[in-house]
Amino acid sequence: MNIIMRSRLWSFGFRSTIMLYFVLLIVLPIIGIYSQSFELGLQPFWDSITDPLAWKAVLLTVKLSVIAALINVFLGTMIGWVLIRYRFPGRRILNSLVDLPFALPTAVGGLMILLLLGPNSFAGGIADKLGFQIVFHEPAIIVAMVFVTFPFVIRGVQPLLEELDKSEEEASYTLGASRARTFFQVIFPSMLPGIISGAMLAFSRALAEFGAVVLVAGNIPGKTLIAAVYIFGEIESDNVQGAAAVSVMLLTLSFLILWAVNLVQSRRHGK
């Protein structure tokens, strides 16, 4: 009896600790942001999110995040395919390097992009001769977003390729289907949930990027100023309510994306 009671108490204490940790680190900060954004009423909140600079910053962030996510879909699917389906020297090293953006501080990533693509770099010099610039313009922001979100699609696709029943693929070849038809009719549908969830996570992560982008964007209001940098500027200007209002927009969008990812994954597991 004492053993049963101790087991129940331990289980209750463990669950309570986890819930307290979750509330303190996630729930309360989220409630705080929503409360701060509506602290002065609905009209100031509306004025903050409809401010031309704020709206342009949010739209620019969404646009560039979509582009970065699409690039990651294309590159991530191919890289995931190569890492699973082919064996070659250095494959394990490359596979481990996929997670490098998670390990590096994002500011380091921004500095790397600045050094590689800046005006004084080889690539930046060629771009300048061709009549366009990379750093301090939208292309640099996209590169930064692609870098920090690089692993999501790859890691979403790899487990699905590993679980794929090769007998289905072999049956398709036996029935006379070409490699392209087999890929699009047999393999790609199995990969699709991982591609979709990875793309949505990449988009959500790109929305919130600050460290890598702030070094390469130029932060020109209305042109290269993204939402995260705009929020930082509002905090520095002591406009906490305005910063919170824009944060709520990004936070709500991220919630919707994560809910969609959850839905895709639950349907995949329930299939």
From TrEMBL:
Membrane-related topology note: Multi-pass membrane protein
Gene3D superfamilies: MetI-like
Annotated InterPro entries: CysT_permease, MetI-like, MetI-like_sf, ModB_ABC, Sulph_transpt2
CDD domains linked: TM_PBP2
Keyword Membrane (UniProt): yes
Record-annotated ABC transmembrane type-1 domain positions: 58-259
Subcellular location per the Swiss-Prot or TrEMBL entry: Cell membrane; Membrane
Residues passing through the membrane, by range: 12-34, 54-84, 96-118, 130-154, 210-232, 244-264
Record's keyword terms, sorted: Cell membrane, Membrane, Molybdenum, Sulfate transport, Transmembrane, Transmembrane helix, Transport
Listed PANTHER family: SULFATE TRANSPORT SYSTEM PERMEASE PROTEIN, SULFATE TRANSPORT SYSTEM PERMEASE PROTEIN CYST
Family: Belongs to the binding-protein-dependent transport system permease family. CysTW subfamily.
Role played: Part of the binding-protein-dependent transport system for molybdenum; probably responsible for the translocation of the substrate across the membrane. Part of the ABC transporter complex CysAWTP (TC 3.A.1.6.1) involved in sulfate/thiosulfate import. Probably responsible for the translocation of the substrate across the membrane.
NCBIfam families from the UniProt entry: 3a0106s02, modB_ABC, permease_CysT
Subunit: The complex is composed of two ATP-binding proteins (CysA), two transmembrane proteins (CysT and CysW) and a solute-binding protein (CysP).
Name the UniProt record assigns to this protein: Molybdenum transport system permease
The organism's taxonomic lineage, starting at the top: Bacteria, Bacillati, Bacillota, Bacilli, Bacillales
